[in-house]
Write a structure and sequence with these properties.
By secondary structure, the protein is mainly α. It contains 17 helices and no strands. The protein folds into 3 domains: 183 residues, MFS general substrate transporter like domains (Growth Hormone, Chain: A), CATH 1.20.1250.20; 50 residues; 192 residues, Growth Hormone, Chain: A (Up-down Bundle), CATH 1.20.1250.
């Protein structure tokens, strides 16, 4: 059997340099989660307003990611990465200096836009720097580890920073990472451009981003302004319909409705959303739940969150073996069932009066939801790519991001409405229900022979 050539020292330097971008963009997302209660207190937020701290980033990231690939191909991948890095640096400073909710939300949106160019540029540069398929697969695996480490240590690092120096330093700490990337990339990474320049569908990007933004705003208004929520929701549906119609008429669509309209594709899309709500969105509400239950400061909360994030580094290889043995349908059904059980354990922990029992059940619930998400998360991307035609693999990757990030943003908003005044029982019960619906989608929509 032919083995891939080993990576030389310079190759490793290139990989670690490009992986640095994925590291600090993931670190920033999970570190912020632990600091949300402190931000809420300092800037006088409510729970619904706190949701926009995460959702502004996710929305901008999703919208710009759809455009970033075409822009990187047209103007240069290294140039796109460095531009995104500069935007992320400025936005991080703006986040740390924010004086109220709108200023923080605007800066977070700018961060998300910058992160989209950093991630897109890094992945595209890997593809051009390592043309050998076997080496490229090894490089992507290594970058995945670097990215996963950033996600896993984010809550702990964020908690320590928030407790010792204040939440603003969660954003200021991005500056040295950005400076290091600015210095290293021009020295180590060669510019790359696509031979064929892709068209940029600005209308499609704007329609989809605006539709998601209106859906989130409508969801957050449900409790206080039902008429306004209905109006915004109707406008969002009209924009989504306009997006679908525009994509059908587009020569090179962002997301082709004909490709993603099959039952299996719909099933995978629903599963991506279910995992985003029952795991990723839950991570946002675990810190205030723990602080409410135990009176913990951010540093201890961040350390405890490792129970939910560490499985993402350990469990994915098990998922790869399982999906080959039992197929998509039952693998994803079991994974979502595990997520449901984990959220039910979190719910049960709030009903105990003994602190030790509450802590034990909560930690167990976090380990279980982390394991369920780790089993499903990487394999869902592979399933969507496998279902898509070979010439639509890039489109399938974009669809994965839209479903995952859109589900995350909408999930945070929906759980904020359900939770109202920090009603965490309702939040965990809703997440468990969404996971059950995801398991049912896997059973009834996914093929049995794959």
């Amino acid at each position: 059997m032919k083995t891939a050539p080993s990576l030389c020292a310079r190759d490793l330097s290139v990989v670690l340099t490009l992986g640095l971008g994925a590291f600090f963009t993931n670190l920033d997302v999970t570190a912020v989660v632990v600091a949300l209660p402190a931000m809420e207190h300092t800037l006088n937020f409510g729970m619904a307003a706190t949701a926009w701290v995460i959702d502004a980033y996710s929305l901008a990231f999703t919208g710009m990611l759809l455009a970033a690939g075409a822009i990187a191909d047209r103007f240069g991948r290294r140039r796109a990465l460095l531009a995104g890095n500069a935007i992320f640096l400025v936005a991080s400073l703006a986040c740390g200096l924010a004086w109220d909710g709108p200023s923080l939300w605007l800066a977070r949106g700018l961060q998300g836009a910058g992160a989209a160019f950093v991630v897109t540029g890094a992945l595209a540069l890997v593809a051009s720097a390592f043309p050998d398929a076997a080496v490229r697969a090894r490089v992507f695996a290594l970058m995945g580890v670097v990215s996963g480490v950033g996600m896993a240590v984010g809550p702990t690092l964020g908690g320590v920073i928030t407790a010792w120096t204040g939440w603003r330093w969660i954003f200021f700490i991005n500056v040295p990472f950005c400076v290091a990337l600015t210095i290293a990339v021009p020295r180590l990474v060669v510019e790359g451009q696509a031979a064929e320049k892709r068209s940029l569908d600005i209308v499609g990007v704007v329609l989809l981003t605006m539709a998601l933004a209106l859906l989130i705003d409508a969801t957050l208004r449900v409790r206080v302004d039902m008429i306004g929520a209905a109006s915004l929701g109707g406008a969002a549906l009209l924009l989504l319909a306009g997006f679908a119609l525009q994509q059908r008429r587009c020569v090179v669509p962002l997301l082709d409705p004909a490709v993603f309209g099959t039952p299996a594709m719909i099933g995978v899309g629903l599963l991506l959303i279910a995992v985003s709500v029952s795991y990723w969105a839950i991570l946002v509400y675990l810190p205030p739940a723990m602080q409410s239950a135990f009176g913990w400061h951010a540093d201890r909360t961040g350390l405890a969150l490792l129970a939910a994030t560490a499985p993402m580094l350990i469990v994915p290889p098990i998922g790869g073996h399982l999906v080959m043995r039992i197929g998509w349908r039952w693998h994803f059904a079991h994974s979502l069932a595990i997520l449901a059980v984990g959220n039910l354990l979190l719910l049960a922990s709030l009903w105990r009066t003994d602190t030790a029992e509450t802590l034990g059940l909560m930690l167990a619930g976090m380990v279980v939801i982390g394991s369920g998400a780790a089993l499903a998360h990487p394999q869902l991307s592979g399933a969507l790519l496998a279902l898509a035609p070979a010439d639509r693999s890039g489109m399938a990757s974009a669809m994965t991001i839209v479903a995952r990030q859109g589900g995350f943003a909408l999930g945070i908003a929906a759980l904020a409405v359900v939770g109202g005044g920090h009603a965490f029982e309702a939040i965990f019960a809703t997440a468990a229900s969404i996971a059950v619906l995801g398991a049912l989608a896997a059973i009834f929509l996914l093929p049995a022979d794959r």
